């Protein structure tokens, strides 16, 4: 629906989104406004909303709710439990609304920092339903990319820590540009693949890559040799585009686990087959 609307038209979500576990995923899907009575409905049932879960007041095992809102600063759990139903409901509703407001502020900050996807991964890491939401978001991501602004100008590093990290918008965009927009070297060239995990980023400034390019250029061979660095998580990166975001602005765990290398191996094979089919490039 979002891709069919003019960019300036807000999308309002009625009901069903009044929980901190849901709000960031709704925003990632393009929702701009929310309408929910959950803060009151939960309070009527003596349930308190927290940033990562919902708990019945009677099941709280500590003296105070782990929250810094005005209600939780003033009243302990036993005090709330001893109040009459109407007063307790009113105070719990204030608490719940405060937590939702705090979540909205966090989402706004994440959007401005460019870390909303990392936040979704954090949410999904401890809740099966949130994990399902992240997996569902992946399925519709390519359609959503049509209306998500380009990340041009952003310099904050991506943190690639899980398989879900490899499906974030910036990486999907890079893969599509590499395979569909990047113009490979002339047919018949020699392809030299270097192991990215042994090189410094940005690769074009690595001493070994710099020396190799200098030697090829000095001997007038640069137009006949295609230098590619195989990044452990992002796959093939032609040296001349290695400074483009996010090809040098990303971090990944070392040693890199096999589940993160899967995409890299797949893309390298796909890229080399594409070069071969264009004119029989030789691999080295």
Explain what the structure shows:
With 284 residues, the protein is an alpha/beta fold. The protein has 2 domains: 2-141, TIM Barrel; 158-283, no CATH class. 44% of the residues lie in helices and 12% in strands. The chain contains 11 helices and 10 strands. Helix 2 packs antiparallel against helix 5 and helix 6 (116-125) crosses helix 7. The longest helix is centred in the middle third of the chain and has 29 residues, at 85-113.
Low-confidence segments = none
Average pLDDT confidence is 89
What is the helix/strand order? Answer: EHEHEEHHHHHHEHEHEEEHE
CATH superfamily of the largest domain: Queuine tRNA-ribosyltransferase-like
Q: By helix and strand content, what is the structural category?
A: alpha/beta
Largest beta sheet: what is the strand line-up?
8-7-6-10
- Portion of residues within helices: 40-55%
Alpha-carbon Rg, integer? 25 Å
Portion of residues in beta strands equals 5-15%
- How far apart the termini lie comes to 47 Å
Number of helices: 11
Number of self-contained structural domains: 2
At the first level of CATH, the class of the largest domain is Alpha Beta
- Which word captures the global form? elongated
CATH architecture annotation name of the largest domain: Alpha-Beta Barrel
Number of strands: 10
In CATH, the topology of the largest domain is named TIM Barrel
The largest pleated sheet is described as:
4 strands, mixed
């Amino acid at each position: 629906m979002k891709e069919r609307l003019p960019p300036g038209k807000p999308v309002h979500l009625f009901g069903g989104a009044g929980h901190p576990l849901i709000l960031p995923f709704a925003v990632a899907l393009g929702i701009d406004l929310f309408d929910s009575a959950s803060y009151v409905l939960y309070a009527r049932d003596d349930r308190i909303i927290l940033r990562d879960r919902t708990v019945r007041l009677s099941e709280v095992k500590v003296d105070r709710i782990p929250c810094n809102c005005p209600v939780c600063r003033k009243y302990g759990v036993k005090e709330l439990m001893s109040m009459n139903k109407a007063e307790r409901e009113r105070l719990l509703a204030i608490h719940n609304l405060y937590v939702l407001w705090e979540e909205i502020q966090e989402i706004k900050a994440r959007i401005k920092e460019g870390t909303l996807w990392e936040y979704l991964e954090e949410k999904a890491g401890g809740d099966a339903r949130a994990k399902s939401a992240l997996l569902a978001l992946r399925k519709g991501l390519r359609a959503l990319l049509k209306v998500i602004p380009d990340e041009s100008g952003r310099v904050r590093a991506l943190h690639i820590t899980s398989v879900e990290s490899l499906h974030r918008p910036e990486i999907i965009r890079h893969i599509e540009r590499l395979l569909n927009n990047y113009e490979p070297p002339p047919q018949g060239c020699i392809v030299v693949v270097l192991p990215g995990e042994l090189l410094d980023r940005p690769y074009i400034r690595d001493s070994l890559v710099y020396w190799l390019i200098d030697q090829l250029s000095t001997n007038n061979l640069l137009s006949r040799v295609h230098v590619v660095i195989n990044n452990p998580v992002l796959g093939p990166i032609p040296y001349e585009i290695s400074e483009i975001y996010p090809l040098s602005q990303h971090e990944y765990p070392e040693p890199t686990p096999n589940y993160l290398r899967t995409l890299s191996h797949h893309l390298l094979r796909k890229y080399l087959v594409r070069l071969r089919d264009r004119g029989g490039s030789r691999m080295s």
